């Protein structure tokens, strides 16, 4: 049980007949600033026996300077009592509107003896759970809790601000209250969680008590899930309701009572802009001159062109190369896989640039290079995943979302989350300007808020001292007044953040209001994800073609067996009882049963009872149960609500993600969802495609008021430029709300590029890994245009690339080779790419057609048919896959390729293999002889930061055994575990086997430095002294796979695994290379290699997502031959790919599109490459 410590901030003593509370420390006087502006406060104190008490008391005098306050009444405090907290009495927080009907059910708190504890230790009394926006108390001692509230409907919950129980918060004495126009105040004059003792006090209403779950549902709370509460006190009207109170001027407009209503989160959004529309119709003027120029683009200033000169680069397999790179050009680096391209681009140029930016840090490993001159700051855009966080979206990643939030904060029109009325505070000066402008052309009448008394009546053009009039009207109406124009309906004008229609208090708008990652502004029902988990009836009865007796549903299970040996199990018994009552033949398939019966079985019988009589044939137990039918779904929902591991295991099979019913998928709380700009709510903008967003941004300058346009100008310009960039790279169909995990590899690659565009920076070196990866050839020109734009802004672009179109578009080309690993690392050609075709390099031979990739085309006879495929943008398409052959799924980014494979094909096959009730989004035939699905995706390989290639492929154990069998190892009693850098027995003590130490660099990413003890070798010296074939364990792990294969040629197990890695184009990787450093393409080929190492006679379905990523033409040839071998062995191979060499050489093509997003999801054509080539509507056909 958790415990919480309260330290006394004050003590009680007597002065004459008065009780005085005096701060225990001089510094605490600062915490009392502005407390004197309140007449009453809630005191939390000890009763003299180590128990906590709470009392609302009047204060006759507050001496902020000397840290003392005089109580107007004793109120149960005794001399020497310790005071732990003082909270100002705020009526809308502390008193209820229904107090007139309440009767005191408990005695007020009071001290039992003098004295008190300077430090009080309190145990947790329970936990507050927040479930889909509803609050539940879970007491540690449920029975004692019920006894303590003694039938009260209203109680005060004392709970702990756990997140603020830190030294820095508890020592904080003053802050800026979130109240409108409030000055800096002491923490004891606010309800802030930042205070000496982070304890909160909230009046709540008890809605329901669940005796089975031992929980109490309440309303009125506002805290995080799993917040601890430490006590419950009765709400006592005679003490807690103060009628004659005083609060500061900045709170006088707040409501006089706390209203406890059930949550309004599920109300439909209704926005009332009638007042604003009426006023704007009088104020609206034509577009300002600024509107015509606001979105004009600016260009970055370019730097002077020169060169980057590299001398003696020896990193990894580079062989002392010298290179001259022209600045402010696009430079392509080509070569076979493992030739040294990444070593040159990333491990030398980018690493050296990072080193120079952090040159004050010692011990950072320097790239192995003699000199680099003219090297600018570098930015790397690699293929590695940018994260699969479901909260990360296109909008957050590109920065557009941040700018939109600022735009809505600055000029958005908010609405009351309770009643929907427009709430548009204006400064007093702004109100004066409006009245002066309107008064020159209209008759005006000002009426007081509330009583509607006429304050001023002004004829058209009449001189009026509007400053004085507005000031008086605001004072009388506590921040608001009505305006009637030409005798029309009164319009409410205000300068306070509050809804004057329903008295709802609002705090100042900030960008956080529009963030679904902020706990206070996200939808509390789905925690800002836009989706919740719900029980799906289609998963409860997963096999409707069967009868319930024959396990149509795993929920009821084997009902036939149960009916033969019945028990008192009501879950199955209610189904049989209902069938008996309704005369239903349960031998019929579920889908043929009457609809009324199926509804009752699933959702319950309401108040209708049924009877179940049973006699067990063996033990003779018998009985009759008469109850209502609860229904499968209510039972599962109850279990889901209860939570816990057991409930989760039971319900998981029947759940699926659905759009959140509270926020309707918009992810925000009501207040953030109800702010509009030009008539559109913030979530509506976030749901727009880039194309629609561009139109909206372009329309804003002509509809905004002049002062709004002035404020919005810089933000609109930035948003416009970012959206233009997204359109230029072919992503205009994406929405801001599209989550990053749902994007394809090509979409992700372009998104990374857009994040760097339009930011106005010049003089940078961009190092990119295959910017065309994941893209259809149709989209290559858009990427090339984007790269040229970056170049024109004064930047140098270095791309590691294999794609022919990209190589030809470069200004300069460097080819590294001639082979991989130790056979590469040399500059074999550099210059203008147009001249490469005359050379005799591997790249030149494929580009000129002197070498070609060509496989034989077999006859297709057997098929897997997927019909009515529907997910994301797939439009009920029907496609075929030839069994035992290679199929390539093609189409532009966003056309539906990943949806077809990952959301339709794989789940359908797995559901058949596992016989589980998964949601299948198609009908499928021809998969009877497929025994396994092997999906090699580009997602990161699973493993921790210490996992290496040798471990993943399964050869490291064997290698360690070889070392342990060496004579010297046996004599020193070194076991195989000593040769693992994860073992304390063998790892370096200083770096724990990591070989590096992490150094934190301010304002930059952390940097790793070589361990000064083992010099990066990860092992103890004793271990490194053991040699196998004249190499120690560190040297073996540093070997490329291709070399290691020859070293271990006598060990068949190791050789087979390493040969497989070479077959999939990974022979250049090192045995000790961390798997987290692999690109998406490398990770996928590694998964494929691991699957191929497992000998199996099964007929498998192999699914690969762009396996050629990072491969040279010659490597693609090898990979295709490997996949063809798999197909010849009877396996079905499905490849999602854009590479033209692959597409030309597969047996069957399924081309989706024709466009991405809403314009995709159709079957354009399917057939052999020859068939697709003839299809005029196919973008793929044009490129092959």
Automatic annotation (TrEMBL):
Q: Which organism is it from?
A: Candidatus Enterococcus clewellii
Where the record annotates domain ABC transporter, the positions are 855-1180
The protein in question is named UvrABC system protein A
A GO cellular component annotation in the UniProt record: cytoplasm
- All copies of domain TsaA-like, residue ranges: 122-244
Q: What family does this chain come from, according to its entry?
A: Belongs to the tRNA methyltransferase O family.
An example Gene Ontology biological process: nucleotide-excision repair
Keyword vocabulary terms for this entry:
ATP-binding, Cytoplasm, DNA damage, DNA excision, DNA repair, DNA-binding, Excision nuclease, Metal-binding, Nucleotide-binding, Repeat, S-adenosyl-L-methionine, Zinc, Zinc-finger
Location comes to: Cytoplasm
Traced from the root, the source organism's taxonomic lineage reads: Bacteria, Bacillati, Bacillota, Bacilli, Lactobacillales
GO MF entry, a single one: zinc ion binding
